[in-house]
Amino acid sequence: MEFLVSAAIGILTASGLYLILRPTTFSVVLGLTLLSYAVNALIFFGGRLGASAPPLVLPGTDGHADPLPQALVLTAIVIGFGMTAYLVALALRAKGESGNDHVDAGEER
Amino acid sequence: MSHLPILPVLIPFLTAGLLLATHGMAMGFKRAVSSASVVALVVVSILLLIESGDGLIRAYRLGDWPAPFGIALVADRLAALMVTLTAMLAAAVLISALSGTDSQGRHFHVFLHLQIAGLNGAFLTGDLFNLFVFFEILLLASYALLVHGGGLPRTRAGLAYVVLNLAGSALFLIALGLTYGTLGTLNMADLALVLPMVASGDQALVRTTLALLAAVFVLKAALLPLGFWLPHVYTAAALPVAVLFVIMTKVGIYALLRVSTIGFVTAPFTADLLQPWLAWLALGTIALGSIGTLAATRLSVAVANIVMISSGTLLLGVAAGSVTAYAAMLYYLVNTTVVTAGLFLLADRVSRQRGAVADVFEKGPRIAGILATGGAYLILAVAASGVPPLSGFLGKIMVMQSLQETSTAVGAWAAMLLSGFVVALVLARAASTFFWEPGRADKQAPTPEPVRQISSNTGSTETALLGMIACALVITLGAAPISAYTRATADQLATPAGYVEAVLGDSSAIRRERRP
Lengths: 109, 516
Prior knowledge:
The structure holds 2 protein chains of 2 kinds. By secondary structure, chain A is mainly α.
C-alpha cells in the first residue's frame, strides 16, 4: 500500500514537472494542477495510511486518525484552486493580448 | 494579553474588506480610507517596535488555544522591525500611487492592503503552515498588483511570475507535508524542541525536508539559480508597485533567518544545513546582480539588479550565522530596503518627466527642478553604492567586519567592494545622462515597453521620495541607536530558548503522542 501511494505521488509529480516545462500555457496549467494533486495527496498521507481508525477520539477505541493533515489539505486545496483559477484567467488574457498561448507570449523569438 | 501583535494584520485585512465592499464609491473615499488605514498601521507598528524594544517576546495565541496546538503570532524585535519597515514602505507606495497609478486599474487599494496584511502576517506568525497561508495572501495580492495598469509586458511577466511561485508553493507544501509527517508539528518553537529528538533513521529525511523549506525561502529571496525572475518582475510592475515589491525579497530572507535560528541550529544534524552552499550562492547572486546592473539600459532595471545584489549581501550575513553578522545584516537590510525603494520612486519621477524616453539611459527632455531631483539622486546613489558618508557605507562596513572570521571572507569582501563600485559606476553614468546632457525631445528615442500613462500630478511621488530620503538620513544619523537595536535583535535570535519559552510556556507540560 505504501509503495503504491508513494509511486502514485511520484508519478503525478514527475508528470506535473514535465508539463510545467512545456512551452504552452495550457500544458503549464495542467502541469501545475497535477503537481497540486500530488502535493495534496502527500500532505494527506502525512497523517499515515490506515483504513479503520475513527476521525474522533471515541471511548473504547484505541488510536484515531490524525485530523490535522485533513485540515491542512483542505486549506491547500482551496488555495491551490484559487491560484489555478487566477493563472487560467491570466493565461487567457495573455492569449487575448498576444494572439498565442506561448509562455513568452508575444516576445520575439 | 495585549492585542497589539495582531493589529498589523487585522487593520489592513479589515480595510481591504471594507474597500472591496464599497468599491462603487468615489476614488476620493477609497483614498481616504486607504490613507487612514496606512496611518493607523504606521502608528501601530511603531508602538509594537517600542514595546518589543524591552526584549520581551510576546506570543499572541489566536482564540487562546494553547501552542503548539493553536496558531500563535509572535512579536519579537525582529518581527517588530520588519513590520515597521513594511509600514514605512506601504506609506511611500500609497503616497506615490495617489498621483494617479491607483486609478489606472481596479482595486489597487484593496490589493495593496491585502499584500500588507500578508507581509505583516508572514513576519508575525509563529507557525509554518500559517506562514504558508500568509505567503499565499501576499503572493496573490502581488500577482494582481503586478498586472495593475495592464499591457502585454506586464501580463507576460505576470504569467512567468505566477507559474514560478505556484511551483514554489507546491514545493513549500511538500516541505510542510513532510515536516508534519516526520516531526509531527508545524509550530516553529515546537520545532526547536522536537528536532533534537529525531530518531537517527529519520534524520536524513528531516534534513531533506528542511533543505526543501530553505529552497522555497531562497526562491523568494532571489538567490542565484532561482533569482532570474526578479529583474523582469520588478521592472514590468508599475513603479509604485515595485517599491512595495522591494520588501518581498526580504520576506524570504526573514523566513530563512527565522527558521534557521530557531529550528536548524537546535539539532546537530541540521545545524550545518546552510553552511556548505549558502555563502557561495550568495556570492554568485552578487556577481549576477552586478553584471545585470552593468548591462541595464534603464534606471528601473538597474535598481532591480541592485535589489538582487543586496539580497546576496544579506544572505551572506545569514550564511555566516554569527550574532555580529545578524546584527550587521539587519542594519543593512533596513538601509537597503529604504534606499532601493527611494531609487524606484526616483525612477518614477525621472520617467514621468522625460516622457517617451522614460528612464532609459539616453538623452531626453530636460528634467524640471533639476537641482532638487539631482540632489535626491545623489543622496540615494551614494547610500545605495556604499560610498561614504551615508548609511550604505556604514551598513557595508558592518557586514564586511562581521564576515572577517568566515571561510568565504575574501570572496565576500571582494564581491561587496566590486558590486559597490559597479553600482556607483552605473548610477554615475546614468546621472550624467539624465542631468548633464539634456537634449531636445529625441526623435528616435525608443519607446520603453511598459508605457506608463503620464499624469500631470507628480507632487505625491515627490512627497514619498522626500520621505524615503528622510528615512535614509535618519538611518545614517541614527546609526548608533539602530545598530544597537539590531544588535539586541541578533542576541535575541541567537538564544532560541527565549522564543520557545515565550510561545510554549512550560514545554514539559506538552503531552506528546508517539507517532507510528
